[in-house]
Amino acid sequence: MKFLKNIEFLDLPFYISSCVAIIIAAFFDRKLLMYILPIVIVSLAIIYIKKANNVSFLYVFGLFLMILCDILVYFDFEKYLPAICILTSTYFIICTLVLIKFMKTKRFRVRSLLSVPILISSFLIVYLIYSISHLVYDFIKDMIPLVILSVSSLLLYIIASYFIYIIDIYKRGLNILIVACLCIFITSLVPINELFFSNNVFTVFINITHILGFYIFIDFLIKTKPAKITSDHHNYL
């Protein structure tokens, strides 16, 4: 009951449309998601515009690109795969550009990039990308440049997210890293679900992580102010 009391009227369209999207993913024809997911994203865009102190209209534009991307995914993934790659890549690039203002700090240690967990994680990400690419090669062999663009933009976004996390000056820095992990999950699972093994369980997980990714990222933008660069005579290298 306490949770219900804390829900603002502005948030209701998002919660209702998200629940409907998950129900459709679980029990109905997933093509119906092309109608409900745009409502989810539009409701999030409204929340962001209304609540953020400094609205990035570049990111709002990115959200509307993802509306078009979601429509194409569930209309005909294989036919519109090139357009989906371009739209997804553009969104990741926009997210990276939006995060740049949170990365302007002197509080950074180069050796933190060379930690064992990060090296292992990097290896696993590269291996995952290779495995998925090998699996879907017959579908992407005529559009390798677009696939490289998609992978590069995703890696760029992951690097930006990890940088914000390791500088450790934002209370919600971990949230941005979580969103990057969700993006890896989505971009890996969607091709499998659409081209090889269509399963409602996969569709539910994809849409939950898809919606969560948007929500957590927007929550970060609303509640986090970029840190100011202050003079610092300590050597962090």
Question: What is the residue-averaged pLDDT?
Answer: 81
What's the helix-strand series?
HHHHHHHHHH
Summarize the main sheet: none
Low-pLDDT residue intervals, each spanning 5 or more residues: 231-237
Number of strands: 0
What proportion of the residues is helical, as a percent range? over 70%
Strand content: under 5%
Number of DSSP helices?
10
The rounded Rg comes to 19 Å
For the termini, the CA-CA separation is 50 Å
Please tell me what the overall shape is.
Answer: globular
Structural class by SSE content = mainly alpha
Can you summarize this structure?
With 237 residues, this protein is an all-alpha fold.
Highlighted features:
single chain; 237 residues; mainly alpha; globular; disordered C terminus
Account of the protein in words:
With about 240 residues, this protein is mainly α. Helix content is about 75%, strand content about 0%. It is built from ten helices and no strands. Helix 3 packs parallel to helix 10 and helix 8 runs antiparallel to helix 9. The C terminus is likely disordered.
Question: Layout of helices and strands, plus pairs?
Answer:
Blueprint: H1 2-6, H2 12-27, H3 33-51, H4 57-76, H5 81-99, H6 116-135, H7 137-140, H8 144-167, H9 173-195, H10 200-223
Helix pairs in contact: 2-3, 2-10, 3-4, 3-10, 4-5, 5-8, 6-9, 8-9, 9-10
